[in-house]
Queue: 4 jobs
Job 1
Amino acid sequence: MVHASDAHDGGQRAGAPGGPADPVYTVDELAARAGVTVRTVRFYGTRGLLPPPVIGPRRVGHYGPAHLSRLALIEELQRQGMTLAAIERYLEQLPPDLSAQDLAVHRALVASWAPESAEETTRQELERRAGRPLADRDVDRLAAMGVLDKGPDPDVFRLDGSLLRLGVELLDVPIEHETILASRTVLLEHARSAAHELARLFQEQVWNPYRESGEDPDHLSAMKSLSAHMQPMVVQALVTAFQRSLSEELRSAFRTPPPPAS
């Protein structure tokens, strides 16, 4: 795992990416510090997720703290289940002049809003935790509800344990598979819209003032604290608003019409 502090120690000191006093890493040193393989570093580079290194003498690529912090951010986003395409879109929206410190802040804020990480589980363990045998149709329904993700191995899944109990309870509810998929699509669409507006608000009201403050350490601490306290408040507000809105819509949809006037 990459730590922000790793970007400020070790390595060679020379004219490096990011500044004359910044550490310089070869691709092997960068991979070792990031806890990934050299192949992964180069793959991210070919996808445009990682900026190219500065080419030094004898055609040796030199990487700096910004590369290390960017790798940490990419790994954090992947732990949240984002695809490489989604990570690419996320990184494209970041200002091009972000320092290693800026990227470390982004990673800390992203991590503070991350849900409980998904875990890998086998079919046998999944059925044990579900408390019942699971047919292929049951697994498909759990996947449609976002409880688990199916991979190339039909007996290994990525599981969101916090949703398993509810998902299992819903297996016996007479709802068609297509209805579950359509419902999830609607929810994801509106959740992304809300997340987009909240991210814009956070950028305008919190992130931009932080950068304008000259990256003051006190402002940074306050921003991280605000982010951590906002997460449960925003989640609860969204849940409460959704519950009330859905209740009102259902009452309106199924309200018994008044009897005709005699």
Note: The chain is about 60% helix and 5% strand.
Job 2
Amino acid sequence: MSMPGTDRHDTLLPGTAPAEYGLAPRLAAEAFGTLFLVLAAVGVPLFTIPQSSPLPAPLAAGLAVTAAMLAFGHVSGGHFNPAITLGHLLAGRIRTVAAAGYAAAQLAGAVAGALVLYGVLRTLPGIADSRTAFDTVSPGYGAHSIIEAPLAAAFLLGMLGAAVIVAVFLGAAGRDNSNTAAAALAVGLSFAVLLQLGQAIGNLPFNPARAAASAVFSSAWAMEQLWVFVLAPLAGAAIAGLVFRALPSPLAAVPEDEPAAPADLPAARLP
């Protein structure tokens, strides 16, 4: 029996849980969750007053990831990051058409969130140049890094950090994406820790959608360096996804007095 609101592009591999939502609501969840993430991850450092002691930006972003995953993870899986979606695709946990839709929705949500922040900046009389303000939260290397980290350092850390985040997500969520609460906590904490490290290197976001969103509203140099902060996390995600794809599937225990299920049972559905 097919699930309502799904189509052939949502069909999953055997052993995975059925998708309860159609593609449209899942894309909406990904877009809104990514918008919320950008509002927190970009907005908190953007409007931080140096003399105050606000919630540190990396912790705010990590909490936003956890909250968004808890709110929307049961709908879409709670990726909110093209790197995480690529990791799921290569690990065999999402179909190509759905993955492409997820990436587009994440980018749209991220740009929408950055647009809201840009609009708020334009209303503040004390900020003459909104693009210069966005420069302070956009990822960069060399002269645009706090410690003037070179391209190699930014790329390697961006790749490694994304690989860790994707591996944590895939490992915590499980093959059937059933442990969404555990994944939310694990991924949120991982983001907070890695963002604290990446902040010193050059505001590394480990998220291509978030990097693109801030670069759109920054000075020209941000767009020129954007490829690093898109390619590096995607490369790390690909490594993690392929590693999880190569892992053997766990064997389900079958009672001695119960015959094994036939091999030609209908496949379940992927998100």
Note: The chain has a mean pLDDT of 85.
Job 3
Amino acid sequence: MNTKTALLYLVLFSFIGCQSGQTKTAPQATTKKENTPIPKSEQFNQYWYSGKAELSSYTLKQARYGEIRDGEVVLVFVTEPFSVSKQVKLDNPQKAGTDNVSVMKLNHVRKFNTGIYDYSIVTSTFTPIDTQNHPFTLKASTSIQEWCGHTFTQLNLADDKYNFKQFSYFEADGDEEKTINATFLEEALFTKIRIAKGQLPEGEINLIPSTIYSRFNYKKMDVEKAEISKTTSEKTLTYKIKYLNINRTLTIDVEKEFPYKILGFTEFDGTGLTTTAKLKASSNEPYWQQKKLSDQDKRKALKLKYE
């Protein structure tokens, strides 16, 4: 990515906006010179630094192997203190100084069956709240488990590159390490939306496609051109992300008002079938504390089907 393009994207995104390590007070954005407050509203801070995570469940219709499979998605959004250098959640954020950056973490959990056997997929994305000083997501990882075996993919930001690692049981894929030019991640569109008042930049953009798409379609991960457009209804913002050189289109339905929840999404990969996810239920809970048998009733409130 050239300097002019990087600056353009930075401006676009900066103006729009396990025990959990979540903090209950809004942190300070850090720069090399001084600490300055993150320019977020009181409403944002009260919601995202309440000591709870936002949990949302979705009915999933997953396209796989030429058929639509019933399944379920859970999106877990939570803020956490994160180490820029180590790229892990900090145990002692108060001692980390400028290495401590507050991130919006999304754990995207997807489960569905294919005939006799099942799939379980988890993608974790760590996007800084302070998009002005940290325009790109710091880390994203995806693990896919199914009865044939499992794969693991991870991207870590290092200056203007992502360090990419992939581990697979397939001979054609094997283990791979490479660098990819730093730009925006499809996985991070959900977190960017939550941080930037429901907004994404419209027009042509460089984007690294979903790791799930890459694995399911045996595509090498790299930067692709995509075009983002938006339509608006009374209560919903709908974003369409269409890749220009690969056969993939993603749509995301977003609440028009705060807290800009993800209402659903669709994925079309040129197979003639479309994956859809529609919101069932949502709640805010400190789920990491809810480990007793008696806490299982909270699963009913989320309308969770898959154990």
Note: The chain has five helices and 17 strands.
Job 4
Amino acid sequence: MSLYKFALAADKSVQIRQALGAEAEAYFAAMEAAEQAFFGSIVNETNQQKLDWLRLRTHLISRMSDKDIAALAGYRIDKLQNVARHLDGNERQIAIVTIDTLAAAMTDIKAQQWIGFDTETAATFDKGRRNTNPVSLIQIATASHCYLFRMVGSNVLSFKAALAEVLSEQSNILKIGIGLRSDVNAMKRDFNIALSPMLDLNWLMNQLGAAKQMGTVQIAASVLSLKLPKSKRVTLSNWALSLDKPLSDEQIQYAAADTLVALDIYHGLFEQISAYKALWPNTIKQRFLEEATH
């Protein structure tokens, strides 16, 4: 993302494309080339890092068009991509937790320094009504697994007790997600679990300069250069199925992707900005400098 495109308001870009038609891309390319030439003329040892940081930060917080996102490689659940050299290629798997596998899942989760977190709730189709349906699925991602906890039927009491140990403030594990406000409220309402400590990646992108919440698809595109599939149909599907009815493959893939990508974005973002610690906003320095050095 060039600074020129970043500074150009979205509505103005549309007007230019409408006016120039087929010549619009050539115009934008010419402007970006002029920008590159300008920066090449002013770069020196003193300002090189500041200019590089400006360009990187601009790229990270810029919203991509649907067309540009569609051209990206697809996000994979089974293997890390575009995160960091020492992590890319690592394999991982999805595990639907049962009472019998609960202990093994919790052992893995408790060993983590940070985890991806998300929840799913059965949709309400009453127009204008806030969704007060209980959380039906809790997803937790570790370095090697995405664990799906079906919070229905006979699972609830055992799962609630086990998860309280790792999700509440008595645990130092950082819970990472995107758009966590509704999840936080629902976890407190349904299970009396106060999620802490946690990081909403929208907050982190705001500290870098994003004007508003970017959302999962946009952040995955800007940080990882990957296209995260999102299906409204799956979002609105029935997550509250009884335990004798399995979740569909689409539901499993959707739920796991939303959680794993949060962890990938966290690691991928700090991999990219680690060289610019001295230029980080104070809010990021104060909260994450220690984590970023690991």
Note: Residues 43 and 289 are 28 Å apart (CA to CA).
